[in-house]
Amino acid sequence: MTIYDISEKAGVSIATVSRVLNGSNNVSEKTKQKVLRIMEEYGYTPNAFARGLGLNTMKTIGIMCADSSDLYLAKAIYFIERELRLNGYDCILSCTGYDLATKISSMNLLISKKVDGIILVGSNFIYEDMDENKYIIDAAAQVPVMLLNAVLDAPNVYSTLSDDLASTYEATCQMYASGIDDILFFYNSHTYSGKRKMSGFSAAMKDNNIPADRARTLYFSGSHEDIPAMAKLLIDYHMAGNTFHGIIAADDYLALGAIKYAKEMGLSIPDDLAIIGHNNCMLVSCCHPELTSIDNKLELLCNHLTSSLMDILNGKETPEKTMFSGEIINRGTTRN
Amino acid sequence: MTIYDISEKAGVSIATVSRVLNGSNNVSEKTKQKVLRIMEEYGYTPNAFARGLGLNTMKTIGIMCADSSDLYLAKAIYFIERELRLNGYDCILSCTGYDLATKISSMNLLISKKVDGIILVGSNFIYEDMDENKYIIDAAAQVPVMLLNAVLDAPNVYSTLSDDLASTYEATCQMYASGIDDILFFYNSHTYSGKRKMSGFSAAMKDNNIPADRARTLYFSGSHEDIPAMAKLLIDYHMAGNTFHGIIAADDYLALGAIKYAKEMGLSIPDDLAIIGHNNCMLVSCCHPELTSIDNKLELLCNHLTSSLMDILNGKETPEKTMFSGEIINRGTTRN
DNA sequence: TTGAAAGCGCTAACAC
DNA sequence: GTGTTAGCGCTTTCAA
After folding, report:
1. Which CATH architecture does the domain made up of B58-162+298-324 adopt?
2. HSE value, Cβ hemisphere, 13 Å, CA-based, for B59
């Protein structure tokens, strides 16, 4: 069933059918109704490919993320997909893993599928070495590229992010103010966002005049879901003679690893060990005591990112970078 | 840059260019190289829409799921997307929520976008009332529909699932054998899979000759992530005079709710209360003690589902229903 | 308000 | 091995 069939059965031209299809005003109400009736009767659906060919768009956005099964990224995808759909866009999901070559080929594939825009979810798409960001800049020459929780200063690339530096600074200060002066920054990634968190931590320790040997950092290189391995790393670190009574964790998974560490060492939370996580994801209520965490307003970020993209696609002016503030949600793992 | 431009610059016809593009053998190595060089030189990429129009496919699969931010569903999507991509298919993600009307319109949208197949992730797409499954049967008239963890007996609909009845039966028997004869089945959905779990529980209690008043069931109607609300429901239930020393939870979230309940009531796990969850997701190691859970082999299911779909699209015969066995992974919340 | 017709960029059948 | 050409189903001028 094509537009030709409908036009024939309705006794009009295909142009008229097309007009009805696209809600043009230049059709008499009478013919319009007639055409609509025929369409209904024969269960006609326009061919999306033909449409795409003519209009050069199928209203789809490519979403890339390293690992859609990560709680935080999954939530982001969920929010973004919902908003895109409300705006009449579908999304093609592409999980790239953490390897640059795969990211590049995924990007090219999306471009070749002629998506209208690309959203990079998570900060691990941006590299220190600008050469390695070339794939993004190249993509941005074709379609707008939106970054969630990352920054890249390039034409047609837009960033929406949470002010991780400020919120980590604040969290560190709060912990210090609660009487803890040997704090460990526990992290697992060297991404832009990861570095900003570390900077916030370092700045806070410095501003509170804490000697460098009391501002420790520990890097976890295992799987982001492997809570037992995180606990084990902390135990080993502790056993090696490093002392700390507070942990600022770069995400909630790591914070749970810290809780597990405390449990296994027989430490009481928050008296022997205070913990603050990042992301404020549902994990915070899975543990005991419940986790104090930094809410980085993911839903807000996603909504802003999506509406920016819509603006861009509609030719409106849009700021290249938008930053939101996080907020510490205090629960049982901190003293206050 | 179109196939015409390339053909002109290479001094061949568009047919030859098309042949090179599609790896046909009927092109001399020499012209092939020439054409490839020109393509490379001008950075030519074929237009996916025109291609789709001609071939009537763009190699995309629609994935529908109620809530992609659910840990378990997110994991499933991750596995499925990975396999589809390995087979050269993209996927369009559609999060439908739990409302039938939205599911129907999402389904229609995917069909109108001309996906090559549709995958329904999770058992909440199937309804008791067969009239409400009509949207699936209609869709299956257009493209193959794959069900993960659900069953619908209809043409062109294929099911891949875990034997929840058997594994819940086994878990219940194991708990009974460990000395607990008042067990609560704690659940939150009336889906096909949910009902099978309940049936397994009931059958096990019956086969062990446990009086009906000791085989309790409790339904949680809140958000699937709201652990505190689950704990609260259990506390209220307990306070109302219901006793139980074991809980079979229909998923790991609910099991965490049970752990929280135990913590708040000062019950020791597993001595005062044993708990078995379902899904064996990463939450099992987030709590203390770690959670005994039924591994329903999600990755295996997803891989099977995807390869079945590929077979179907390639015209191979495929079984309409495949069931895998689950396995109890014992950890700290059970006695044994 | 309507219709005719020229694309959009590709595939595939057919001819040479 | 290669070229010609007729679609694929729609949008969009341009005329009427």
Report:
1. 3-Layer(aba) Sandwich (3.40)
2. 16
